């Protein structure tokens, strides 16, 4: 491949890198987890995005043994301490977003309208960044049931992605601590939503968990409840 193909991989290569089927990679593209580009009438994916998805999915992690486990545990403890210190210093609290039904619908509409705007003030981005990381599967399941939309997360994820791009491509980004901090908040929100989206896709079920549970027979539900009680 020439220079214009550097940093690109084919869907087949991406499937091999991710340890997933070609069909699953197509699903990732359709749902906006992976972005595509067309070169000489062929579809390619950005290698950096595929590599990030590898990390999100845990692909290529080393075999788990005692040494690996304790090393990973120590690393996680250091990260948790760093995050705790950062949250205390910035006054950031990550309680889940739990608006009323009416507020959820209005928030979804606001995200759709904001995404259509295409550009935002720093104050607007700051406001959204404060909410993105607090959006979890409970929020999106509740919203999806209210508005009867399977991928209720989509306008929020696409808005967060677009705002992160605006912040990081600004001329002052490299010299502005405020912009760098704002970008880190948006990245944290993207990671939170990506985890939820990946679970949604990997499960192969776009409906809320309660609807999936209703498809189980009575015995299976009873067993599930007993196991949950013991956990």
Would you give an account of this structure?
The protein is mainly alpha-helical and 231 residues long. It has three domains: 3-57, Multidrug-efflux Transporter Regulator, Chain: A, Domain 2; 64-93; 95-214, no CATH class. It contains eleven helices and three strands, in the order βααββααααααααα. It has a three-stranded antiparallel sheet. The model is unreliable at 206-218 (pLDDT under 50).
Overall pLDDT level: 80
Low-confidence stretches: 206-218
Strand numbers in spatial order across the main sheet: 1-3-2
Percentage of residues in strands? under 5%
> What can be said about the biggest beta sheet?
3 strands, antiparallel
From the alpha-carbon coordinates, what is the Rg to the nearest angstrom? 20 Å
Q: What's the domain count?
A: 3
Oligomer type:
single chain
Topology:
Blueprint (H helix, E strand, L loop, with lengths): L7 E2 L1 H8 L3 H9 L5 E4 L2 E5 H11 L8 H25 L10 H17 L4 H11 L4 H11 L6 H15 L8 H27 L5 H6 L3 H13 L1
Antiparallel strand pairs: 1-3, 2-3
Describe this protein with a few key phrases.
231 residues; mainly alpha; 3 domains; 66% helix; Multidrug-efflux Transporter Regulator, Chain: A, Domain 2
What is the gist of this entry?
The chain is mainly alpha-helical. The chain is 66% helix and 5% strand.
